[in-house]
Design brief:
Blueprint lengths: L10 E8 L3 E2 L9 H16 L8 E5 L10 H8 L8 E4 L5 H14 L5 E9 L5 E2 L15 E2 H7 L4 H4 L5 H12 L3 H20 L10 E3 L7 E3 L11 H5 L23 E11 L3 H4 L3 E12 L9 H12 L8 E4 L4 H11 L24 H19 L3 E8 L3 E9 L2
Helix pairs in contact: 1-2, 3-12, 6-11
């Protein structure tokens, strides 16, 4: 019998861009998430040359959604002054949100639901609000509690009734450090490596092609142009890392996670066009990579950092690829001990030659982790590096708060 299922179309990734990543309460703090989203969308439309009327949907990820810009894909598209006929929405898979936006767009294109989708991600952690859950029905007496959505979201990333209280994502990294025998010295050494690679990449101009500078309005005078990630440390050394106190040191004498070997809280936006291969010519677009395959997997929320291990295992089982096929690996650095635990889970040795393919220009520890934008920040950096190295396949993967992992393979466009 002839199958009635249509063949899936090949999906192109075009013009991946990102803003520089700002520190928490840093240079980008005056701009809320919706504004950052509008900036990256406008830049993507202008640089790619795509007719905005040909964009059929806008998918934006955000880890800390807000009533100030609901359905932020749609909100930011309109704020960019683009056609009102184009719809949009937002999604949240926590740290995997940005990659999920690309995946959702790719599945739409593969199945013929759309020919051209804009996928993006944004986070303004500097502007995440405080909120209350008790005011709606009134409080007859007493105080109203305000929760900080940043910290509360981490505490409530899993049902407490089932898994108990997990105080923070830091606790999950400490659990992995204990499980996999990760030392403070090893974690600090990896963090130094991340900062040094980020600094070297900036000095070499590796991020120039995908960077969208952001103008920050000032009360007086001309806007300040923000054009460089501001979280990486140019003075990172083993000694400077060793001098930092473990964040949970007071309650855990074996704690090893510090402000230096953990990812940051950040502000940024990133986006790309996800397009059907057979529409590239008429849209005037050039692919930088092809979407290949993806997978997600769950794990113990108390050890959420190990998520890339089952996710990559599931992905390789689906796509028939293996480590020998992968020429570049981007593993988001939520915490240094989390990365080192994942590498052990993958069976990589301490002196594994594949380390030269891993996070070659830095990652979350040095470049930052603006939750909703991270997956697309990684994709922008990774696809440009694929071109420089002429790598055929690259792997993007990350752990996800609440106990998940996600992974995807992209193929270089010749």
């Amino acid at each position: 019998m002839t199958s009635l299922r249509p063949a899936l179309r090949r999906v192109a990734i075009c013009s991946p861009l990102r803003t520089p990543v700002g520190k928490f309460l840093g240079t980008l703090a005056p701009l809320e998430a919706g504004q950052l989203g509008a900036i990256i969308i406008k830049a993507l439309v202008e640089r790619s040359g795509v007719d905005p009327a040909r964009v059929e949907d806008v998918i934006f990820s955000q880890g800390y959604g807000s009533g100030e810009a609901p359905a932020i894909g749609r909100w930011s598209w309109l704020a960019a002054g683009l056609p009102i006929e184009v719809p949009g929405y937002q999604l949240d898979r926590r740290c995997g949100s940005g990659l999920q936006a690309v995946v959702n767009a790719a599945m739409m294109v593969q199945t013929g639901a759309a020919d051209c989708v804009l996928a993006g991600g944004v986070e303004s952690m500097s502007n995440v609000e405080h909120y209350t859950t008790t005011a709606r029905h009134g409080a007859r007496m007493g105080d109203l509690a305000l929760w900080d959505r940043l910290t509360r979201g981490r505490l409530m990333s899993q049902p407490v009734e089932r898994f108990g209280v997990i105080s923070s994502m830091i606790e999950t990294a400490e659990n992995l450090a204990k499980d996999y025998g990760i030392t403070r010295e090893a974690a600090d050494a990896f963090a130094v490596r991340s900062h040094q690679r980020a600094e070297a990449a900036w000095d070499a101009g590796k991020f120039d092609a995908q960077l969208v500078p952001v103008e920050i309005p000032q009360r007086r005078g001309d806007p300040v142009v923000f054009a460089r990630d501001e979280g990486f440390r140019t003075d990172a050394t083993a000694d400077s890392m060793a001098a930092l106190r473990a964040i949970e040191g007071r309650t855990n004498p074996d704690a090893i996670v510090t402000a230096g070997n953990a990812s940051q809280q950040n502000d940024a936006a990133a986006a790309c066009l996800v397009v059907a291969e057979d529409r590239l010519d008429e849209l005037g677009l050039e692919p930088i990579a092809w979407f290949h395959s993806w997978a997600a997997a769950g794990c113990d929320p108390a050890r959420m950092g190990i998520g890339p291990v089952p996710a990559v295992e599931r992905l390789f089982a689906r796509n028939g690829l293996g480590w020998d096929d992968i020429g570049l690996v981007e593993l988001n650095e939520a915490f240094a001990p989390q990365v080192l635990a994942v590498l052990k889970g993958w069976g990589w040795s301490e002196n594994d030659s594949r380390m030269e393919q891993l996070n070659v220009n830095g990652s979350g520890i040095s470049l930052g982790h603006p939750i909703g934008a991270t997956g697309l920040r990684i994709l922008a950096d990774m696809t440009h590096e694929m071109q420089r190295r002429e790598v055929r396949y690259a792997l993007e993967t990350m752990c996800i708060g609440g106990g998940q992992g996600m992974a995807a393979v992209f193929e270089r466009a010749a």
